[in-house]
Design a protein that fits this description.
23% of the residues lie in helices and 23% in strands. The chain is α/β, with parallel strands linked by helices. The protein has one domain: TIM Barrel (Alpha-Beta Barrel), CATH 3.20.20. Strands 1, 2, 18, 19, 20, 21, 22, 23, 24 and 25 form a 10-stranded mixed sheet that branches. The chain has an 8-stranded parallel β-barrel with strand order 3-4-7-11-12-13-16-17, surrounded by 4 helices.
Length: 550
């Protein structure tokens, strides 16, 4: 969960490198595509978008369309849900006690379920949903030394406290012994289908075995705790000292190995960093010594995996709340339209080596573009090949404004095109206050209200003016079905010339649009061609348009 933390940087890691191969004209080309129908000229337009199904073909991970809760799953149709955040760092899966940390008075309470609740209640809802809908579930296991023992600060009927009830330190100097239980990676003896909630210990490999027994038919992924680079602030009662490189690497590998031994099919994610300063040096870790953390971490993971003979950490997991500023504020700090102009451009910092946002990262650290995904993927390629990239928390703000939908749709397009492995949107506010962000998700998961979704293979979609219009395209059925997302970031309507090079002649484009008028995605009139596979599409100011060639 995002926290506002002040810091200074001991090391600066320069951005550079490519994204591991973007694919040339025939990258991923399949002979079954057949003969490509070359498009004609769409005519005069403000911006040109050219789609080619025979170029830059890459598989899109369905797990990029995820959430951390708050979605209407029947409407928004996320492909993965995560049980994560600060609350999971001291979560006791046996009795569902947790500690709120600095988010809420450092108290133990029954947010996930009071006494007598079923074990693993923090996970059950997303596991059941994943089974019912054929999607995936991402659970978080603590890797710290202590988890909550009790629900003493229950509040109303165990549903969470209505007011600050009490810091666990109020229980006396021995609060770690009286209010917490020892947390372990391994039990060291046979697992029980019913955990012993009466002893002084909690075992995370037994938790994974419990999930395997109950939901073995579900794709389950495991986050190895949450934002350890902030533990000394968010969870000062159980981890008062800043985490070190050595400690975090050891904890991650120890718990990852225990998870894999309990359930080899479970995929693991680490180190679940809170943000850019964590990427660089674990928020000024005491033993940083000028070493950048991500390559240090990946080198250790690769060495351990070589010894183990199998993957231990499947995904490098980062959180990304943009530091870009607009109208004097950080864009992700506001839910309305403040900073809209900066917000709609901010996704370019994920990939664009020519774009410089207004942020401390650019102004004070890099003195140039961020190009985050190419940089991180190069670190992976150099230090732990085969590891996938995840962003299990991200949010660009503007949840109640069309700019939020535009940024969200743009980010999801980038994630698919640039082969991110998993991403789960974190709602910073109530779902009602994040309605445009969820609409941006639906542009890819349910744009027509009937399950219409972006395809499984990303293909080339180039635009003549990325500052005003970005576009993403997918292809399925070897050229038989395309979906194109056109995003107008400008504050005025535009005419976009769209061409589609595909192995068929396209009769028309079906159209759905999301505008500032409403967070509903509505059907529009079909677009007929001006030439072979060429179209002139009028897009409203500040909008997301989904086109389906027929």
């Amino acid at each position: 969960m995002r926290s506002a933390i002040a810091f200074s940087l001991l090391a600066v890691v320069a951005c550079g490198g490519d994204d591991g191969g973007s694919g040339g004209p025939d990258a991923g080309m399949d002979a079954d595509l057949g003969t490509i129908v070359e498009p004609g000229d769409p005519g005069a337009a403000d911006v040109r978008v050219d789609v080619r199904v025979d170029r830059d073909r890459k598989t899109i991970s369905p797990l990029i369309y995820g959430v951390n809760g708050g979605a209407d799953v029947a409407r928004d149709r996320p492909r993965v849900q995560r049980s994560g955040g600060n609350r999971l760092t001291a979560y006791n899966w046996e009795n569902n006690a947790s500690n709120a940390g600095s988010d809420y008075c450092f108290q133990n309470d029954g947010t996930f379920g009071g006494p007598g609740s079923m074990p693993a209640s923090a996970y059950r809802g997303i596991l059941d949903d994943a089974r019912a809908r054929g999607t995936a579930a991402l659970v978080t296991v603590p890797i710290v030394d202590y988890v909550a023992a009790d629900h003493d600060d229950l509040g109303d009927a165990g549903q969470g406290p209505p007011a600050c009830v009490g810091d666990v330190r109020n229980s006396g100097p021995n609060y770690l012994q009286t209010r917490f239980k020892a947390n372990h990676a391994r039990k060291g003896s046979a697992f029980s289908p019913t955990p012993n909630a009466g002893d002084a210990d909690v075992y995370q490999d037994e938790a994974i075995d419990f999930i395997r027994r109950g939901w073995g038919d579900v794709r389950v992924l495991v986050d190895l705790d949450n934002e350890p680079d902030l533990w000394s602030g968010t969870h000062a009662r159980i981890h008062p000292q800043p985490v070190t490189y050595a400690e975090l690497i050891d904890r991650t590998l120890t718990y990852a190995a225990a998870v894999k031994d309990a359930w080899p099919a479970a995929e693991t994610l680490g180190f679940v960093s809170y943000g850019y300063a964590g990427y660089l040096n674990l928020q000024n870790a005491p033993d940083a010594g000028g070493r950048p953390f991500i390559p240090t971490f990946l080198d250790a993971v690769r060495a351990a995996e070589t010894t183990a003979g199998h993957k231990l950490v499947d995904y490098l997991d980062l959180h990304w709340y943009p530091e870009a500023r607009g109208d004097g504020q950080r864009i992700s700090d506001v839910s309305g339209g403040t900073g809209a102009a900066a917000r709609v451009q901010a996704p370019r910092s994920l990939w664009d080596a020519t774009y410089e946002e207004d942020s401390w990262i650019v102004n004070d650290v890099l003195h140039g573009p961020i190009a985050l995904i190419p940089w991180v993927k190069q670190q992976i390629a150099d230090h732990a090949p085969g590891t996938k990239l995840a962003f299990t928390e991200w949010n660009y703000g503007g949840g109640n404004d069309i700019s939020g939908a535009i940024a969200t749709a743009d980010v999801l397009g980038v994630f698919g095109r640039d082969e991110v492995g998993l991403a789960t949107l974190w709602l910073l506010r109530s779902p009602a206050q994040e309605r445009y962000l969820l609409a941006g998700l639906r542009a890819y998961t349910n744009f027509d209200g009937n399950g219409g979704a972006f395809g499984g293979t990303s293909v080339a979609a180039t635009t003549s003016d990325v500052a005003r219009v970005t576009a993403y395209a997918s292809d399925d059925d070897f050229g038989g079905r395309q979906v194109i997302v056109v995003i107008n970031k400008a504050t005025q309507p535009l005419t976009v010339g769209v061409t589609v090079a595909a192995p068929r002649t396209i009769d028309h484009l079906e159209r759905w649009q999301l505008t500032s008028a409403s967070d509903a995605i509505t059907a529009g009139a079909a677009v007929t061609p001006t030439a072979t596979n060429a179209f002139r599409v009028d897009v409203p100011a500040a909008s997301v348009t989904v086109l389906v060639p027929r």
